[in-house]
Amino acid sequence: MNNLNDVAAIVTGAGSGMGAATARVLAAAGAKVALWDMNMEAASAVAEEIGGLAVECDVSSEDSVKAALEKSAKAHGVARIVVNCAGILIGQKVVGKDGPADLAHFQKVINVNLIGTYNTMRLAAGEMAKLEPVTDDGERGVIVNAASIAAFEGQIGQAAYAASKGAIVAMSLPAARDLSRNGIRVVAIAPGAVETPMMEGVRDDIRESIENNVPFPSRMAKPEEFGKLVLHIAENGYLNGSVIRLDGGARLAAK
Fold first, then answer.
1. Structural domain contains residue 255
2. Which helix (H) or strand (E) holds 128?
3. pLDDT averaged over consecutive 10-residue blocks of the chain (255 residues)?
């Protein structure tokens, strides 16, 4: 899709961080953006800034996603671009000082990060498949899923998070193959450490260690760099079934 003017887009987790940055980048390119989030105050603030639509949505709920899709389509039309950024990061060792990890913790992370991504992807793709193609290749749209380099080098305490992001990586190719008959591409982005609200509470010494682990440039990624990559994926019709690392060449150590 070389021209995103008036193209409907959905970004989950769009109230802050990578989701908000992606919404801004897509809107600047001319897309009509629906910003899905559980935090309506945050999503509404970004939506007002970019002329988008804030939609309350629990991505792990089928009914909630269906309702959000209906509201988004009523305002902008069926989305041709869907970006799954909604996610949580909660650390816990498999066995810690107090014994085995809480199973509910693992289930919550998987439910939001993995099931939420799959749930949104399958339902959005179902609507997207009904659209007319917009390119000579027959493309109808693209879905971009946020993974993480933790999918490949999960650190201590990241078993649940790494499992959720590893599954997003693993389903990228089969999802792209499934949706090829519908002219829908699927690509995952695996960022390293990103300057998001989740990183605001990190101690200075830990931040320094993270940044020193990045070969070049030795810093965390900026949220807009994720958004710019999403824009390129939307515009480059030959990117499909891939997982793109956005990490400055970093490889995570155990801790």
1. no
2. helix 116-128
3. 95 97 98 98 98 98 98 98 94 93 96 98 98 97 97 94 98 98 98 83 77 91 97 98 96 83
Give the predicted TM-score (pTM) of the model: 0.95
Residue 254 lies in a domain: no
pLDDT at 201: 67
Task: Please say if 161 is a catalytic residue.
Answer: yes
* Residue 30 domain flag: yes
Q: What CATH number is attached to the domain comprising 95?
A: 3.40.50.720
Indicate which residue of 161, 189, 191, 221 is catalytic: 161
String of DSSP letters for 132-200: PP-STT---EEEEEE--THHHH--TT-HHHHHHHHHHHHHHHHHHHHHGGGTEEEEEEEE-SB-SGGGT
Burial 187-222 (b: 16+ CB within 10 A, else e): bbbbbbbbbbeeeeeeeeeeeeebeebbeeeeebbe
Q: Please provide residue 49's backbone torsions phi and psi, each rounded to the nearest 5 degrees.
A: -65, -40
Q: What is the pLDDT of residue 255?
A: 78
Number of structural domains the chain divides into:
1
Per-residue pLDDT at 142: 98
Q: What are phi and psi of 203, to 5 degrees?
A: -65, 155
Contact 147, 169 (CB under 8 A): yes
A 10 A CB-CB count for 13 gives 30
68 lies in a domain? Answer: yes
Q: What is the pLDDT of residue 196?
A: 83
